[in-house]
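Why do we bother with holo predictions? Because pocket geometry can differ from the apo form. Keep that in mind while you read this record for glutamic acid.
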Amino acid sequence: MASQHRSTTTREATAESTPSETALETARRQLDRVAAQLDVDDAVIERLSHPRAVHEVTVPLERDDGSVEVFTGYRAQHDSVRGPYKGGLRYHPDVTRDECVGLSMWMTWKCAVMDLPFGGAKGGIVVDPKSLSDGEKERLTRRFAQEIRDVIGPNADIPAPDMGTDPQTMAWLMDAYSMQEGETIPGVVTGKPPVIGGSYGREEAPGRSVAIVTRESCNYYDYPLAETTVAVQGFGSVGANAARLLEEWGATIVAVSDVNGGVYDPDGIDVSAIPSHDEEPEAVTRFATELDEGDDVSRISNDDLLELDVDVLVPAAVGNVITADNADAIAADIVVEGANGPTTFAADTILEERGVHVIPDILANAGGVTVSYFEWLQDINRRQWSLERVNEELEAEMKTAWNALKNHVERRDVTWRDAAYAVALDRIGDSHEMRGLWP
Ligand code: GLU
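The structure, written out:
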């Protein structure tokens, strides 16, 4: 009953929800909406509205100047009915407990959509990684590993990179954990460099899955890629890799951006000429300043990019960028969510009413966690796969998940997000009901 009550109140609140909606609010509203459509036990939905645990730690860091600063870190563990908790660690000044919980819920659904034997988790440290030297970042990461050591592990909870963290961060974490355990345990994290048990293709995987899902949705809605225009917000690993692959497959990337703004060229941008954020931070900005602005090529803001009249919009930067304030102005026919949670619940409703197809994050960027699963298997077996094998298996997994959602969309006439939630909740609900409540 409690969940039904919450459903009603959150639905009423929707119209007033603001751009500042937290990831947790969005995640709960999405869950309530789908719960009302599905035949999943109320008790299970109620359980899934709450994380199993949220670990909060303090992480002291000796700065390079000898002073000591204390940072707050979190690890939210949402649900593990289908397997170990899984999800990224982000280093960002806006990290909060609620954000970690909301993102951990999305990881649970994402792993279930992909039918991976994992649950959902997310964590991070409230810190601006740009303010840290490499040495400080290493010390902070090693100490954080120590503080969460008891709650992570290759069979318990497996972190991975997210905003502000990268393969090097995972290498430090894995090393710190392994040193304390007294043996090398590569499977405690994924997204490591391949030389220490990381998987080839892991870094590009979220962008690759965004590109695969964009290609599938264009086929589905009859947009031949060669005639399709795409705008990509964000040029980190997700945005850059998605843009490059889509360009390779024939689409025209008309706009890209980084944190400072973007570039628009209706004739298409040579995205392979622009380094990604990881290769050269803020290279889009450099590209934009070196540009001879002609009649056709122009510099645009991130807000303008979202409203461009393109076939496909890929928000691949941060969360909460499509809100009730700009949803009416989104001119794309298809939105493929590269970032986690770029669309607020209220914006989603508006886009649905306007007939804009939103392909949700929990499918679109799920290539990351899927190749994380491949990495975990490689670590357990101590045998590395070739890049070709990783990409082939990722392609197959993405197509299987796409087809499962498509069947649902066609059978039930629901949005792609509703379909993704339905597929995920069916699987999670069945596992909960079969295992039962302990004791
Ligand atoms: N941080 C990534 C995500 O949001 C990947 C998580 C993982 O590989 O565990 O999906």
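DSSP finds 15 helices and twelve strands in the chain.
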